[in-house]
Design brief:
Layout (H helix, E strand, L loop, with lengths): L1 H23 L3 H12 L4 H8 L3 H25 L1
Length: 80
C-alpha cells in the first residue's frame, strides 16, 4: 500500500509541474491574472480593482488563459 501512495504522489507532482510550466508559458498579463485568481484565490472583483478594469475584461483574460493552457497540454500530449 505504501508504494501505491508514492505512485499517487508522484503523479500529483507531475501534474503540478506540468501545470506550472503551462502557466509560465502564458504572456505576463494572462499569467498574472491566473495566479491571482487560482493561486492566491482572489475574487474577480478584487482583481478588477487591482488592475482598474471591468469584470468582463478579467473574465476574458481568464478564459483565454484556460484555452491556452489546454492547448499547451494538447501540444505536450502530441509530442509523446
Amino acid at each position: 500500500m505504501k508504494l501505491y501512495r508514492q505512485e499517487v504522489e508522484a503523479e500529483r507532482l507531475t501534474w503540478v509541474k506540468r501545470t506550472h510550466r503551462a502557466v509560465l508559458s502564458l504572456e505576463p498579463e494572462l499569467r498574472d491574472v491566473v495566479q491571482l485568481r487560482y493561486l492566491f484565490a482572489w475574487k474577480l472583483q478584487a482583481i478588477c480593482e487591482y488592475y482598474g478594469v471591468v469584470e468582463s475584461t478579467v473574465s476574458r483574460r481568464l478564459e483565454k488563459a484556460r484555452y491556452l493552457i489546454a492547448d499547451y497540454f494538447e501540444e505536450e500530449r502530441a509530442e509523446v
